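Hey, can you fold this one?
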Amino acid sequence: MVAMYVFSIMTLPNVQEINHIFLESGHTQQEGDTMHACIERAAKNVPVFTIEGWRTICLLARINPFPYIMNVIDDHKYWSDFHQLGEDLIKNKKKSTDRTTVLWNKIKYIRVCKDAPSLVYFKYDFESNFKSFDIRMGRGNASESELQLKKAYPKRLPLAAAKYKDLQDLCKSLVIPRIHHDLYKNLPYSKVVRDALEEADVEDVDQQVVDD
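Sure. Predicted structure:
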């Protein structure tokens, strides 16, 4: 997150300052909550087997005052690796300029400014003055190579082999209709990818590895 803010301040000429204010837990209400509830109602009792099905439901979930606007990102090439950017760019995130330890779990307010891009200002509450820490540890401005934003994924991410087999079993049993079988058969998968569940749904895992 901080790497994203610092990168934006350093590379976008019209962005002069970024402020991130954290809401108190238990006292929040987001517009997205209403949107999610609306989509859940639209999807109730509607069989959905593909991403395209979910897109249609989302677009038709609300008519008035206007349908939801959907920006579709369907290619792994769009995702950037801000984690690696943080590793390259940020050399310090533990010690503040007053030599105290930065308590990240207590931060309520973060600010970065173009006139001092290597300093991250923060507060533990909304009344006190800003503290700061120097992400460069006095090493000067970031080099051009350190500001290179790399792609997060070189290719489509594969499923775990156990998950892939579960999906093929659903196709064989026709829980997933035949019209969608080619989509599921062509999904990339790998036996070295850990399944998201603590225990796989199937005991026998196909040893074949399909690469994208």
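The first strand starts at residue 17 and ends at 21. Let me know if you want another pass with a different chain boundary.
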